[in-house]
Amino acid sequence: KCTVRYCLGCACFKGSGMKIICFHGFGVRGFYWEPLLATSLNKRPYRLLAPDLDFTTPETALVSAVETVQRENEAVFLLGHSFGGVLAGMVARELGPEIVKKVVILAAPYGTTPGSLLARKITAFLLRHDWLLPDFITRPRFFTSATPGSLQKQLWQRTVKESSILIKALVGDEYPLSARLTQPLPQGFGNTLIIGAGADKAVPRESALTLAEVLRSPLQIIENAGHNDLLYAPEFRGRLVTLLINFFR
Known about the structure:
Strand content: 5-15%
Strand order of the largest sheet: 2-1-3-4-5-6
Order of helices and strands: EEHEHEHHHHEHEHH
Structural class: alpha/beta
Radius of gyration: 17 Å
Largest sheet: 6 strands, parallel
Mean pLDDT: 91
Protein backbone atom coordinates (compact mmCIF):
# COMPACT_ATOMS: atom_id res chain seq x y z
CA LYS A 1 0.00 0.00 0.00
CA CYS A 2 1.02 3.59 -0.55
CA THR A 3 2.66 5.00 2.59
CA VAL A 4 2.14 8.65 1.69
CA ARG A 5 -0.82 10.06 3.58
CA TYR A 6 -2.24 11.94 0.61
CA CYS A 7 -1.54 9.85 -2.48
CA LEU A 8 -3.72 11.80 -4.87
CA GLY A 9 -3.49 9.17 -7.56
CA CYS A 10 -5.19 6.64 -5.27
CA ALA A 11 -4.66 3.77 -7.74
CA CYS A 12 -1.03 3.44 -6.62
CA PHE A 13 0.11 2.23 -10.04
CA LYS A 14 3.77 2.03 -9.08
CA GLY A 15 6.21 2.18 -11.95
CA SER A 16 3.63 3.16 -14.57
CA GLY A 17 4.25 6.90 -14.60
CA MET A 18 6.28 9.83 -13.31
CA LYS A 19 5.65 10.85 -9.72
CA ILE A 20 5.10 14.52 -8.96
CA ILE A 21 5.74 15.14 -5.26
CA CYS A 22 3.86 18.19 -4.00
CA PHE A 23 5.14 20.19 -1.02
CA HIS A 24 2.56 22.24 0.89
CA GLY A 25 3.11 25.61 2.54
CA PHE A 26 2.53 27.21 5.94
CA GLY A 27 -0.70 26.43 7.78
CA VAL A 28 -1.79 23.48 5.65
CA ARG A 29 -0.72 19.91 4.95
CA GLY A 30 -1.02 17.46 2.07
CA PHE A 31 -4.76 18.06 1.76
CA TYR A 32 -3.94 21.44 0.23
CA TRP A 33 -3.34 19.76 -3.15
CA GLU A 34 -6.75 18.08 -3.40
CA PRO A 35 -8.02 20.51 -6.11
CA LEU A 36 -5.53 18.93 -8.53
CA LEU A 37 -7.03 15.45 -7.96
CA ALA A 38 -9.56 15.66 -10.77
CA THR A 39 -7.33 17.47 -13.25
CA SER A 40 -5.39 16.02 -16.13
CA LEU A 41 -2.18 16.55 -14.17
CA ASN A 42 -3.14 13.55 -12.07
CA LYS A 43 -3.59 11.15 -14.97
CA ARG A 44 -1.07 8.91 -16.62
CA PRO A 45 1.78 9.36 -17.19
CA TYR A 46 1.74 11.40 -13.96
CA ARG A 47 0.89 10.52 -10.39
CA LEU A 48 0.58 13.14 -7.65
CA LEU A 49 1.91 12.50 -4.15
CA ALA A 50 1.18 15.07 -1.44
CA PRO A 51 2.83 14.18 1.87
CA ASP A 52 2.48 15.94 5.22
CA LEU A 53 5.81 17.55 6.11
CA ASP A 54 7.22 18.21 9.57
CA PHE A 55 6.85 21.96 9.97
CA THR A 56 8.19 22.21 13.52
CA THR A 57 11.06 24.38 12.25
CA PRO A 58 12.38 25.35 8.81
CA GLU A 59 15.11 22.75 9.25
CA THR A 60 12.75 19.88 10.12
CA ALA A 61 10.63 20.88 7.13
CA LEU A 62 13.64 20.59 4.84
CA VAL A 63 14.76 17.29 6.33
CA SER A 64 11.31 15.75 5.99
CA ALA A 65 11.04 16.98 2.40
CA VAL A 66 14.41 15.43 1.50
CA GLU A 67 13.51 12.16 3.20
CA THR A 68 10.15 12.04 1.43
CA VAL A 69 11.87 12.13 -1.96
CA GLN A 70 14.55 9.65 -0.94
CA ARG A 71 11.93 7.12 0.19
CA GLU A 72 10.60 6.90 -3.36
CA ASN A 73 13.94 5.46 -4.47
CA GLU A 74 13.42 6.71 -8.01
CA ALA A 75 13.54 9.90 -10.04
CA VAL A 76 10.71 12.37 -9.45
CA PHE A 77 9.37 15.80 -10.33
CA LEU A 78 8.81 18.36 -7.57
CA LEU A 79 6.00 20.91 -7.22
CA GLY A 80 5.95 23.25 -4.24
CA HIS A 81 3.61 26.05 -3.18
CA SER A 82 4.51 28.96 -0.88
CA PHE A 83 7.10 27.81 1.68
CA GLY A 84 6.80 24.39 0.06
CA GLY A 85 8.14 26.00 -3.11
CA VAL A 86 11.31 27.07 -1.32
CA LEU A 87 11.60 23.54 0.04
CA ALA A 88 11.23 22.12 -3.47
CA GLY A 89 14.11 24.30 -4.65
CA MET A 90 16.29 23.26 -1.72
CA VAL A 91 15.55 19.56 -2.22
CA ALA A 92 16.26 19.82 -5.94
CA ARG A 93 19.61 21.40 -5.16
CA GLU A 94 20.56 18.88 -2.47
CA LEU A 95 19.53 15.71 -4.31
CA GLY A 96 20.58 16.77 -7.79
CA PRO A 97 19.18 16.17 -11.29
CA GLU A 98 19.47 12.39 -11.24
CA ILE A 99 16.85 12.23 -8.48
CA VAL A 100 14.88 15.45 -9.07
CA LYS A 101 14.38 15.78 -12.81
CA LYS A 102 12.27 18.95 -12.83
CA VAL A 103 11.03 21.42 -10.24
CA VAL A 104 8.22 23.99 -10.19
CA ILE A 105 8.04 26.66 -7.49
CA LEU A 106 4.69 28.42 -6.93
CA ALA A 107 4.23 31.74 -5.12
CA ALA A 108 7.24 31.17 -2.89
CA PRO A 109 8.29 33.59 -0.12
CA TYR A 110 11.88 34.46 -0.96
CA GLY A 111 14.32 37.21 -0.06
CA THR A 112 13.66 40.16 2.24
CA THR A 113 10.45 39.99 4.27
CA PRO A 114 8.19 42.98 3.50
CA GLY A 115 6.81 45.30 6.14
CA SER A 116 8.26 46.98 9.20
CA LEU A 117 9.67 45.05 12.14
CA LEU A 118 6.76 46.19 14.30
CA ALA A 119 4.19 45.05 11.74
CA ARG A 120 5.86 41.66 11.48
CA LYS A 121 5.94 41.27 15.26
CA ILE A 122 2.25 42.03 15.41
CA THR A 123 1.62 39.45 12.67
CA ALA A 124 3.60 36.85 14.63
CA PHE A 125 1.61 37.60 17.79
CA LEU A 126 -1.69 37.23 15.94
CA LEU A 127 -0.58 33.98 14.34
CA ARG A 128 0.40 32.54 17.72
CA HIS A 129 -3.04 33.52 19.04
CA ASP A 130 -5.10 32.60 16.02
CA TRP A 131 -8.37 33.27 17.83
CA LEU A 132 -7.55 36.93 17.10
CA LEU A 133 -7.62 36.28 13.36
CA PRO A 134 -11.19 35.56 12.16
CA ASP A 135 -11.27 34.04 8.69
CA PHE A 136 -13.16 36.91 7.07
CA ILE A 137 -10.11 39.09 7.84
CA THR A 138 -7.40 36.64 6.83
CA ARG A 139 -8.92 35.05 3.73
CA PRO A 140 -8.72 38.18 1.52
CA ARG A 141 -4.93 38.08 1.87
CA PHE A 142 -4.83 34.65 0.24
CA PHE A 143 -7.78 34.64 -2.16
CA THR A 144 -9.54 36.91 -4.59
CA SER A 145 -13.22 36.69 -5.46
CA ALA A 146 -12.24 34.22 -8.20
CA THR A 147 -12.27 31.46 -5.58
CA PRO A 148 -15.84 30.72 -4.38
CA GLY A 149 -16.40 31.73 -0.77
CA SER A 150 -17.49 28.20 0.13
CA LEU A 151 -14.13 26.80 -0.98
CA GLN A 152 -12.28 29.50 0.93
CA LYS A 153 -14.16 28.62 4.11
CA GLN A 154 -13.62 24.89 3.64
CA LEU A 155 -9.87 25.32 3.37
CA TRP A 156 -9.72 27.71 6.34
CA GLN A 157 -11.61 25.21 8.50
CA ARG A 158 -8.81 22.72 7.87
CA THR A 159 -5.84 24.99 8.52
CA VAL A 160 -3.13 23.88 10.93
CA LYS A 161 -1.68 26.04 13.70
CA GLU A 162 2.08 26.06 13.23
CA SER A 163 4.80 26.13 15.87
CA SER A 164 6.04 29.36 17.41
CA ILE A 165 9.50 28.62 15.99
CA LEU A 166 8.23 28.46 12.43
CA ILE A 167 6.03 31.53 12.89
CA LYS A 168 9.02 33.51 14.18
CA ALA A 169 11.13 32.38 11.22
CA LEU A 170 8.49 33.42 8.70
CA VAL A 171 8.29 36.97 10.02
CA GLY A 172 12.04 37.50 10.37
CA ASP A 173 14.04 39.97 8.30
CA GLU A 174 14.48 37.36 5.58
CA TYR A 175 12.20 34.52 4.56
CA PRO A 176 13.37 31.08 5.80
CA LEU A 177 16.09 29.32 3.78
CA SER A 178 16.50 32.26 1.39
CA ALA A 179 20.16 32.63 2.36
CA ARG A 180 20.79 29.02 1.31
CA LEU A 181 19.11 29.23 -2.09
CA THR A 182 21.39 31.63 -3.93
CA GLN A 183 22.62 29.76 -7.02
CA PRO A 184 20.96 28.26 -10.12
CA LEU A 185 19.70 24.74 -9.52
CA PRO A 186 21.68 21.83 -10.98
CA GLN A 187 18.59 20.76 -12.95
CA GLY A 188 19.33 23.62 -15.35
CA PHE A 189 17.32 26.39 -17.00
CA GLY A 190 14.91 24.18 -18.92
CA ASN A 191 14.05 22.02 -15.93
CA THR A 192 13.22 24.74 -13.40
CA LEU A 193 10.13 26.95 -13.48
CA ILE A 194 9.00 29.77 -11.19
CA ILE A 195 5.31 30.72 -11.15
CA GLY A 196 4.00 33.78 -9.36
CA ALA A 197 0.49 35.02 -8.56
CA GLY A 198 -0.05 38.52 -9.91
CA ALA A 199 -2.57 39.60 -7.24
CA ASP A 200 -0.86 37.86 -4.32
CA LYS A 201 -1.24 39.80 -1.06
CA ALA A 202 0.45 37.16 1.09
CA VAL A 203 3.72 36.86 -0.85
CA PRO A 204 4.73 39.84 -2.99
CA ARG A 205 5.22 39.11 -6.68
CA GLU A 206 8.71 40.57 -6.28
CA SER A 207 9.61 37.33 -4.50
CA ALA A 208 8.97 35.39 -7.69
CA LEU A 209 10.91 37.93 -9.76
CA THR A 210 13.87 37.82 -7.40
CA LEU A 211 13.89 34.04 -7.14
CA ALA A 212 13.72 33.62 -10.91
CA GLU A 213 16.64 36.01 -11.30
CA VAL A 214 18.72 34.26 -8.65
CA LEU A 215 18.01 30.78 -10.01
CA ARG A 216 18.23 32.03 -13.63
CA SER A 217 14.96 30.28 -14.23
CA PRO A 218 12.00 30.90 -16.55
CA LEU A 219 9.22 32.86 -14.87
CA GLN A 220 5.46 32.83 -15.42
CA ILE A 221 3.12 35.26 -13.66
CA ILE A 222 -0.55 34.31 -13.55
CA GLU A 223 -2.07 37.76 -13.48
CA ASN A 224 -5.00 38.62 -11.19
CA ALA A 225 -4.55 35.42 -9.17
CA GLY A 226 -4.23 35.46 -5.39
CA HIS A 227 -1.91 33.24 -3.36
CA ASN A 228 -4.32 30.30 -3.07
CA ASP A 229 -6.30 31.08 -6.21
CA LEU A 230 -3.63 29.24 -8.18
CA LEU A 231 -5.18 25.97 -7.02
CA TYR A 232 -8.61 26.90 -5.72
CA ALA A 233 -10.04 29.28 -8.34
CA PRO A 234 -11.22 27.19 -11.34
CA GLU A 235 -10.07 29.68 -13.97
CA PHE A 236 -6.57 30.01 -12.55
CA ARG A 237 -6.25 26.31 -11.75
CA GLY A 238 -6.91 25.56 -15.41
CA ARG A 239 -4.11 27.90 -16.48
CA LEU A 240 -1.79 26.40 -13.89
CA VAL A 241 -2.46 22.84 -14.99
CA THR A 242 -1.77 23.76 -18.62
CA LEU A 243 1.54 25.34 -17.62
CA LEU A 244 2.51 22.32 -15.55
CA ILE A 245 1.64 19.73 -18.18
CA ASN A 246 3.58 21.61 -20.83
CA PHE A 247 6.55 21.93 -18.50
CA PHE A 248 6.62 18.36 -17.19
CA ARG A 249 6.03 16.85 -20.63
